[in-house]
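ESCALATION

Customer reports they have been waiting on this structure for their group meeting. Please prioritize. Original submission:
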Amino acid sequence: KMSQLIIHALSIHVSIIHRVFLQTEITVDFMPTAAVHSYELEWKQYPQSWASDAQRCIFKTSDVGATKKIRANATELDPGMTYTIRVVCKDGSGNRGKPGPDLIIDTEAVSCTPKPSCIIL
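Update from on-call: job pushed to the front of the queue and completed.
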């Protein structure tokens, strides 16, 4: 019963305040909550399974403080692909809360077009 209460208490929705999408990386910023010990940023290619195909990185609230935003990066992604990302809260014992909403994001495609330049004739 106690672990169910802890996990239920961790069902906190994390508001992502900033997102950056590059060819091989997705960066998200969010504000931590003092009641949460750590966060997991999870990502996978869409529509693969969370259970078998997700990659994760963990961020402890104590490492950044409860008043500073957390910047999390999903790295080594394939350009021009669709990914699903989400944030999961964890308590000090490692119990996972309910995952936040899925965000579906496309990484930038590799471009062969030359960058614009100024030519003076």
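Sent to customer with the following note: Strands lie at 16-21, 26-30, 38-45, 55-60, 70-74, 82-90, 103-106.
Escalation resolved.
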